[in-house]
Amino acid sequence: MSIKHFAKMIKECNNIVFFGGAGVSTESGVKDYRSGDGLYNTVKDYGVSPEVILSHSFFVQKPDVFYDFYRKYFIADVKPNKAHKALSELEKMGKLKAVITQNIDGLHQAAGSKSVIELHGTAKEFYCSRCIKTSDNEKVIKTIKSGEIPKCEHCGGIMKPKVVLYEERLYDGVAEKAISYIENADMLIVGGTSLAVYPAASFVRYFNGKYIVIINKSETGYDSNADLIIRENIGEVFEKTMKGVQI
Question: Over the stretch 61-76, which tens digit does the pLDDT of each residue have?
């Protein structure tokens, strides 16, 4: 019944925004934080939490450990799943106006989505932490895969991924753009996130439209505001729902 209701909501709306987190990509094999083989295994492997390793100060102080972790968890050969593909299709239909993602894996773009706001940056692009110049991203990734620290070919500084690390602010204009899309949406779909990471999670509060749908296996702090809550695998939910939307 919830799938039919979700499809009906989508049919009614033409200014939909999707706000997603780690749970959107786990079905593609991307590790989340708290699952059995997730990022919190870093405590066992490295003696510190992933939040510590993914902090600006840790990157500066221990780039060798940072990139060993980065190689294991973020330089992975993963493909878009059913959720990514469905969102791309909704955009092509003219219904979905933006994907706002907390993920850094680039899978939304790989699935064909054009209007993607990456709140925390992107894992496979880099710039020099000293001179800010960019380099060949594939070359940098190759260096990381070989177990070495990527260095700037211009000044010898350490290359940094274009991701927002802990202790860093979001990139200029990103929050404002995301909030603008949410404020103007008639439907907000929240998927694969417990809405626990701030400031990103606070953006949901700006929604003033018709429907909020939450697709997440666990409870979120915003459940009481939702018009529909679905606790199933997000890829399967979208696959079933799209069949109803396209009728």
Answer: 999 999 999 998 888 8
Domains of the chain plus CATH, in order, are 2-29+80-120+170-245 (3.40.50.1220), 39-75+126-163 (3.30.1600.10)
* Partner residues linked to 215 by β-bridges: 191, 230
Which residues are marked as active site? 120
Q: Give how far Cα 46 sits from Cα of 50, 92, 152, 180, 185, Å.
A: 9, 44, 26, 40, 43
Q: DSSP string spanning 57-79?
A: HHHHH-HHHHHHHHHHHTS----
CA distances from 83 to 54, 132, 239 (A): 27, 35, 7
Q: What is the pLDDT of residues 203-227, one digit of tens each?
A: 999 999 999 999 999 999 899 999 9
Reference 93, options 82, 104, 85; nearest CA is 85
Of 140, 136, 134, 90, nearest to 115 by C-alpha is 90
d(CA 128, CA 150): 9
